[in-house]
């Protein structure tokens, strides 16, 4: 495998679309391709996200999508690694680890800060990946979610 990981510019967002939709399907979410593409292009063109695509011999095999923010406690940038996805046939080949390392290198290149992420309680493979790459389980804070619908 010859893996190449590159940042994705707004005009290149379509190259990630099949993987992005596979990621959504993994979580049992359906969105129209046109809506997904418009979302990715908007986030990238407005500098609201950073997206990297992993390719093996020109075939898209995985991506990582981070959103920038800030941490008032550390007074530093804080990034949300919202999406990390690798095509099933490439899982276990090191693609996830390399994508994760690209995200970490990006944060360090910009002067530091932290990366936050979430994963399902039963996703032990992802948990092991994160822990092996310096992430620690947050036992200090409980995460809550509001869906914006009043539920």
From TrEMBL:
InterPro entries per the UniProt record, alphabetical: Acyl_CoA_acyltransferase, Bact_Acetyltransf, GNAT_dom
SUPFAM superfamilies: Acyl-CoA N-acyltransferases (Nat)
One Pfam family from the record: Acetyltransf_1
UniProt entry keywords in alphabetical sequence: Acyltransferase, Transferase
Parts of the chain that traverse the membrane: none
GO molecular function, one term: acyltransferase activity, transferring groups other than amino-acyl groups
Domain of life: Bacteria
Domain N-acetyltransferase span(s) in chain numbering: 3-151
Name of the featured protein: N-acetyltransferase domain-containing protein
Organism for this UniProt entry: Aquitalea magnusonii
């Amino acid at each position: 495998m010859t893996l190449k990981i590159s940042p994705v510019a707004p005009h290149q967002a379509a190259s990630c679309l099949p993987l992005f939709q596979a990621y959504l399907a993994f979580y049992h979410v359906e969105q129209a391709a046109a809506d997904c593409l418009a979302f990715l292009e908007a986030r990238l063109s407005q500098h609201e996200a950073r997206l990297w695509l992993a390719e093996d011999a020109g075939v898209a095999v995985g991506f990582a999508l981070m959103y920038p923010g800030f941490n008032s406690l550390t007074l530093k940038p804080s990034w949300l690694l919202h999406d990390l996805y690798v095509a099933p046939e490439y899982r276990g080949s090191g693609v996830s680890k390399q994508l994760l390392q690209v995200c970490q290198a990006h944060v360090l290149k910009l002067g530091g800060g932290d990366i936050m992420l979430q994963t399902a309680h039963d996703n032990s493979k992802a948990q092991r990946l994160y822990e092996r790459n310096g992430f620690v389980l947050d036992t200090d804070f409980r995460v809550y979610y509001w869906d914006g619908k009043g539920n």
